[in-house]
Structure formats: C-alpha cells, structure tokens
Design a protein that fits this description.
Shape: elongated
Radius of gyration: 25 Å
Order of helices and strands: HHEEEHHH
Number of helices: 5
Distance between the termini: 49 Å
Structural class: mainly alpha
Strand order of the largest sheet: 1-2-3
Largest sheet: 3 strands, antiparallel
Helix content: over 70%
Number of strands: 3
C-alpha cells in the first residue's frame, strides 16, 4: 500500500513538473511585457517610455487603453501641480493674509483629493493596456 501511494505521488509530481515546462512558456517570456517595480520588461530588456508606447500601439485595444491612461495621467499631473502651487501660495500668504492662505490650502487639498481617482484610473488603464497587449501578442 505504501509503495502504491509513493508511486502515485511520484507520477503526479512528475506530470505536474512536466506541465510547467511546456514550450509555450518560452514564448510567454519572450513576447510579453511585464512590470518590474516601476520598469517594464520585454524579452529580458528594460523598455524606455517610447519603446513601451510603440509596442502597445501594435494592437488597437491596447493602444486605446494606453491613450486613455496617458490622458488621465496628464489630468492627474495637472491637478498635482495645482495642488503644489496652491500650497506654495498659502505658505507665502500665511503671515500677510491668513484667510487667503487658508483658502489656498483648502483649494490645494481639494485638488489633491480630486487627482487621486485620475491617478488610480490611469494606473489601472496602463495595466489593462499591457494585459491586452500580452493577450493579443500571444494569440497571434
């Protein structure tokens, strides 16, 4: 009984390990884009921003998502710059006009809160764009 159980375990493990070594996994590693921290990797090399864009533009669905991601990212960036400008103005007006400084601080805080959904959406759209690219590149 012990021998039978050992043999079955061995067969299951070797089959599972063989399944992990299928030839399409090398295509996956070679053709797909993946994120490593704040970097994007394709075929073992780090992609520059322009190279990432060029690859994502190869397929229409990933191109559309990437463009929307960039648009939302620019909106978030504008709101964050507005936040910084409001905070800087609030600091400079603190001694002269405290009421005005408070207004700028509140405006800056509000702009920062409004920027958060744009930042989150841009990040999700970029990830979806990469997912769509990987799907399309593997299906071709």
């Amino acid at each position: 009984m012990k021998m039978l159980l050992s043999t079955l375990t061995f067969l299951i493990l070797t089959t599972a390990l063989y399944a992990q070594n299928n030839p399409s996994s090398s295509d996956y590693e070679r053709k797909t884009i993946y994120e490593y921290g704040s970097r994007f990797i394709l075929d073992g090399t780090k992609l520059k921003s322009k190279e990432l864009q060029d690859n994502l533009f190869r397929f229409e669905p990933s191109k559309i998502e990437y463009i929307q991601s960039k648009r939302n990212g620019r909106t978030a960036g504008f709101l964050i710059i507005t936040t910084l400008a409001c905070y800087a103005t609030a600091i400079t007006q603190l001694d002269k006009k405290p009421g005005l400084a408070a207004g700028f601080a509140i405006t800056g805080f509000t702009a920062n809160i409004v920027a958060l959904p744009f930042t989150t959406k841009a990040r999700k759209q970029l990830q979806k764009s990469i997912w769509l690219f990987n799907r399309d590149v593997l299906s071709n």
